[in-house]
Amino acid sequence: MINSREERFMQRYHRLEELAPRDVVARAIVAEMRATGAPHVFLDLRHRGAYFIRARFPRIYETCLQYGVDLATQPAPVHPAAHYAMGGVRTDLDGRASLPGLFAAGETACTGVHGANRLASNSLLEGVVFGARAGRAMRDFAGHSPGAHQIALPEAMFPCTTEERIRRLAWRKCGIIRSGEQLDEACQELQKDWQERNPDAGLAEFCLRNMHTVALLIARCALARKKAAARTFAPIIPENSLRSKNTR
User: Per-residue pLDDT tens for 114-128?
Assistant: First the structure.
């Protein structure tokens, strides 16, 4: 990877360079974007040659061509996203959460068999193995819990906000690089949103309500992780800087 100055930068952040864990690479990219003022960095495959790129990454190559980027001759602009995050709802090995009747499986579940970084191997395990186990457990629960569908639910309230605002707020203050102060601000802003009844609410309104709830939970839970606070909140520091400080 190279920045807008066509400089490789990952060696400044981790000894594994571009092969560092995904969260490290993502935070390094954000750090470079902020340092250079650029909206992205670049993935440069030109040194591998056209034949290798077309044979190894045919669909990616064709997709990039559709957007005017030839990976054989041009670096591709890239921007990070927190798509690698896994785990959240703590479950047992059959997908049961602590709330009776609530099951979770896949990348949203925290079973304890993987770390926080999504890889092909652990996401496959979570989706295929624990998805099947959770499915069987849900079937058994539904078959032996006649009152499960008779729980009185509180009246739904809907936030007066927009999807775009929630997305911007979550990205700026709950995203890849975040601080305790930013998370606290996110909680306060989301909690200030006026809640109202909407008897005519449809799918779009419920989706917006869910997004608002998830954004607030992300901020609250991140703040509650006091033991991991220093690691979770702090911006990434280049390893070279750490080594130089340790040798003084």
Answer: 776 777 667 788 888
Residues tagged active-site: 22
Phi, psi of 231 (to 5 degrees): -80, -35
Q: Which two tokens stand for residue 124?
A: 């496959």
SS3 178: coil
Rounded CA gap, 85 and 108, in Å?
Answer: 9
Q: 171: which 2 tokens?
A: 């990205």
141 sits in which H/E element: helix 130-144
Cβ contacts of 128-135, under 8 Å, gap ≥ 24: 130/91, 130/93, 130/95, 130/105, 130/106, 131/95, 131/105, 131/106, 133/93, 133/94, 133/95, 133/105, 134/91, 134/94, 134/95, 134/96, 134/103, 134/104, 134/105, 134/109, 135/105
Q: Given this model, what pLDDT does residue 114 score?
A: 75
SS3 119: coil
Residue 16: phi and psi, rounded to 5, are -85, 0
Q: Which amino acid does the sequence have at 213?
A: T
Angle at 57 between CA 56 and CA 61, to 5 degrees: 140
Alpha carbon distance 180, 174 (integer Å)? 10
The DSSP bridge pattern shows strands 76-78 and 89-90 to be unpaired
* CA dihedral (198, 203, 206, 211) positive or negative: negative
DSSP H/E element including 32:
helix 22-36
Is residue 41 a contact partner of residue 78, using CB atoms and an 8 Å limit? Answer: yes
Q: What's the CA gap between 72 and 44, in Å, rounded?
A: 9
169-189: pLDDT as tens digits: 998 898 888 888 999 999 999
For residue 209, which amino acid is it? R
